[in-house]
Amino acid sequence: MGKGFSEAERSIVTALIETKAVDFQALGNALAKHGANATFELDGEDWFCGTMRGFVRVMRLTGGVTNQVEDLAKLTALGRGLQE
Amino acid sequence: MPNSEDTTPAPQTSHPTRHPTGGCPEGSPDIVRRLCRNLDIAERAITELAPLGYRDESKPEFGVSPEKVIAETSVFLLACSTIRREHPEIEERVNRVARVLLPHSRTDKVLFNACLSPSLAWDYSIAHIALSRLGYADPNSDKIFRVCLESETSEGRERLPHRILEQEWLRRLWNSAGGSWRCSSSRRSSSSRRRERSIAALSKLARPIDVFASTRDDIYAFTHAIMYIADFGERTAELPRPKRDILADADATLACCLDDQDYDLCGEILLAWPYLKAKWSLTAIFALRVLARLEAMVGFLPSPLTQLDKYNSVAEEERPRYLTASIYHTAYVMGILCASLLRTKQTSFPGFPRLRNRDNIDTLIHILDGDGSKPHWRADLAELSASQRGGLVPMLITIALRRSVKSRNPEQVRRLLELGLAYGTADHQATKQAAGLLTRIARLAQRAQS
């Protein structure tokens, strides 16, 4: 697994594999069945042998990031701490 | 639009006492005390974050790398470099921060990385350049950086125009710090000016900013281009457009960022006035007032990065590092803003002028209040007299138009344009762009009907 993974990301990827949410056997079967023809028929730069095609991508969504300043009175308590 | 209500419990503070932020003489001017306070935060940031940065396992999008803290602290110190001699309390702190920065600036890792990627050599050298300029020279590191910068791949990376302006600024800085990179004979200097003009012509300064659809990155590109082209206020900038047009953009975006409570960007935009040697606009004076009040109230200029839930959820010994990581950037912006005021001999924020015979703008304020939002600036507006509020029509109409565009309410946009015309703001950025928007939508409607 990539060096840049956090613990949380590592857990998610592990869970995706262990629960077969991403079924690599099924993906492998599909590629074995259609891959050879796809190599010749699909558009793309890698027309020579098809090894570079990206058939599966897992995206990490970064929604839910807050963009609001917290309650000022409560932040003030933190600010006082800076002066101690 | 933000509301300022919150029901989460007050945070349990637990801070070490090893970074006292007091000590600035009571009699020091307001701006000096604020700058000292933010320099104290810089000392704390380097001590706590320069070794390992800050990484939040549960929120990978919030993290601070050591390189980022080191580079930003260097820029902060550079912004203070010319004013420090006039204020002993500032000089003392600048030297203190410089000394804690020193062990991180010319490490084997930094020099090795510069050798490995010469196209990033200027980026890696920023702490070295800042410290050299502050009197902490290191000829051996100079030699290594020079070898990297002379590499044929030193310009091997494609950069956005404002990032190229940054590299040019670093080049000038290094020369002025004794780095003598490509000695500036008059011929070289004029060719470098020509090159800079051509880069500036491609930057965000060369064309109007989109008041309604600009991203934060667009505004950063705008503010950073001004910083670099003006050498953080140390030289008169050669601008690709008339100064008044650029300041009109600054005025409009400042209004938007104030309404978003994005004080990081507000602070950066405000630098446009001192760096371009311009007289503050009324919107700018008002924004300074808001930022100054919030900083005085909270103890640091707040940003959305400081999350109370997060603060309370991290282990007690981790809290100071989390707090520092979440506040340091906005604190630096405020510090750089204070330094820019001191550079122009202002030791306090300008007061809002008394104005007479201004329009009554109750209708406009009523529209703004009608959507239920209560941004922080609203309390400051309430402190002004009716006549003073009348001086803020361009800011208020910009905010109202932007909210209406964001909520996809063309009827409200039309109503506000009529109001704007009555108030005489027809030639302001937001009004012109809103009129353009309505025209485009009308064309689209005609097409749909035909």
Any overview of this molecule?
Chain A is mainly alpha-helical. In chain A, 50% of the residues lie in helices and 0% in strands. Chain A contains three helices and no strands. The two termini of chain A are 44 Å apart. In chain A, 8% of the residues are buried. Chain B is mainly alpha-helical and 450 residues long. Chain B folds into two domains: 30-180 and 188-343, Glycosyltransferase (Alpha/alpha barrel); 362-449, no CATH class. Chain B contains 22 helices and two strands. Residues 1-21 of chain B have low confidence and may be disordered. Chains A and B meet through helix 1 and helix 3 of A and helix 1 and helix 14 of B.
Provide a count of the helices of chain A: 3
- Based on CA inertia axes, which overall geometry of chain B fits? globular
| Radius of gyration of chain B, CA atoms, in whole angstroms | 23 Å
Main sheet properties of chain B: 2 strands, antiparallel
Q: Note the quaternary state here.
A: heterodimer
Biggest interface, residues from each chain: A-B, 25 and 41 residues
* Strand order in space, largest sheet of chain B: 1-2
Q: Assign a percent range to the helix content of chain B.
A: 55-70%
So how many helices of chain B? 22
**Could you state the order of secondary-structure elements of chain A as H and E?**
HHH
How far apart lie the N and C ends of chain B? Answer: 37 Å
Number of strands of chain B: 2
Please estimate the helix content of chain A.
Answer: 40-55%
What do the pLDDT scores of chain A average to? 70
Largest sheet of chain A: none
